[in-house]
Amino acid sequence: MLAPTLPAATPCFPPIGYLVDGVRRFSRNRHDAVAYPRVRLDPALGSAIADAYMAAPRQDERAFAAYAALAAQTVRQYHFLVGRVEFGGLGVAVRVVDDDPYADAQALMADLRRRRLRVYASEATRNPHPYLSDGENDMLRAVHDAFGHGASGRGFDPHGEEAAWLKHSVMYTALARRALATEIRGQTCARVFRCGGSQFPEQKAVLLPRAFSDPRSVLVG
To answer: Is residue 27 part of a domain?
Structure first.
């Protein structure tokens, strides 16, 4: 059987400096030498991740410790993102809205350069998370857009989501990264390979096979 194919990656953007510095500060200078403009989603791997996500139950108690870690660390990142600059924060004004705020990544980057960010409200999507509250999910969307997309300079296409997941993952502990892989990599691959590319799959609180949260599995071409 032929491996699925993906379109070419959309153009990259210059990473936003204060967000790049924010990732470095929050992760305590954790080594991060990835060439993010060259990150690509491997179609065969993406298809396997999608199958694992779709086959998983909606929730699994064995994932709850990882999701608790994800939630706690996301809240810390969010307060760092919105905190006042004079007190060590990044000073981004976040607003939760009821409609998808960005038609493309260029619009997101323009807002972030002005230290503004709009987030599509979890409640409005009518796809509730089995573990995270709507507030925690909104915070995750905010920090993913800022520290994933803004700090990597990559957009919303499958390759850009792969790069954004990889960039953002350096801010989490190993346990929390297991849940982050489900949230970002799992949902992205399920949407692209099993849900027609536009509709998001049901949200889940499960752990995918450990190999799928390993950053060494990422294709850098």
So the answer is: no
Number of domains in the chain: 1
The tens place of each residue's pLDDT in the chain, 221 residues long, gives: 455 678 788 889 999 999 999 999 999 867 688 899 999 999 999 999 999 999 999 999 999 999 999 999 999 999 999 999 999 999 999 999 999 999 999 999 999 999 999 999 999 999 999 999 999 999 999 999 999 999 999 999 999 999 999 999 999 999 999 999 999 999 999 999 999 888 899 999 999 999 999 999 999 98
- Is 154 within the bounds of a domain? yes
End-to-end Cα distance, the chain: 24
Contacts of residue 70, defined as CB under 8 A and 6 or more positions apart, other chains included, come to 132, 140, 172, 176, 179, 180, 183
Q: How far, CA to CA in Å, does 66 sit from each of 127, 174, 209?
A: 21, 9, 13
- Residue 124 domain boundaries: 43-211
